[in-house]
Amino acid sequence: MLLPITVYGNPILRKKAREIGPDYDGLKELIENMYETMYKADGVGLAAPQINKSIRLIVFDASPFEEDEPELKGFRKVLINPEIIEFAGEEETFNEGCLSLPGIREDVIRPGKIKIRYHDEDFKEHIDEWEGVRARIVQHEYDHLEGKLFVDKISPIRRRLLTSKLTAISKGKTQPEYRIIPNK
């Protein structure tokens, strides 16, 4: 089932998400719906706050980047209650976009490598180290769980230049190709 996506201006995007347990009602269906929603909106990652659920859940699929990095083919993950436990590597710049900020793309600087602890959909714990695109996607989605957006990581001047676009999104004056939850 396709879910509507929360957009800039919705307070849930600025709230720190809560952890969940294996008994979270409808978790398997929620994960399937998040993947379906992400794919339909042409995203590579989706965090639960983006579908109006303040829980620590991320889905992503790095396959769209496989042309440049063949090892990303089929690299699809569910991260439950993730915690980035280490940032490493050289900082890298990448032009990011976000389903919650339709029509906005900006260069964002992030560490090139992370170490992360998380549970998979079966609540098995993992500790992995990822770099490059994998680390980038996870850091972007992880920020959503912490109540942060990629525009928080750009310069104040760039943010100021985006004011009218951000205001338009928050007032519902933009309509992407996917369903959104209008701000009240």
Short characterization:
The chain has 184 residues and is an alpha+beta fold. Helix content is 22%, strand content 30%.
Give short descriptive properties of this protein.
single chain; 184 residues; alpha+beta; Peptide Deformylase; five-stranded antiparallel sheet; two-stranded parallel sheet
Please give the largest β-sheet: 5 strands, antiparallel
Distance between the termini: 24 Å
Structural class: alpha+beta
Task: Work out the helicity level.
Answer: 10-25%
Any idea what the CATH architecture is?
Alpha-Beta Complex
Main-sheet strand order equals 2-3-4-5-6
What fold name goes in the CATH topology slot? Peptide Deformylase
- Rounded mean pLDDT is 96
Radius of gyration: 16 Å
Q: State the domain count.
A: 1
State the total count of DSSP E strands: 7
Fourth-tier CATH superfamily name: Peptide deformylase
Care to describe what's here?
This protein is an alpha+beta fold. 22% of the residues lie in helices and 30% in strands. The chain has helices spanning 27-40, 133-145, 156-161, 163-170, and strands at 5-6, 45-47, 57-61, 76-97, 105-119, 125-131, 180-181. Strands 2-3-4-5-6 form a five-stranded antiparallel beta sheet, sandwiched between helices. A two-stranded parallel ribbon has the order 1-7. The longest helix has 14 residues, at 27-40. The two termini are 24 Å apart. The model has no long low-confidence stretch (mean pLDDT 96).
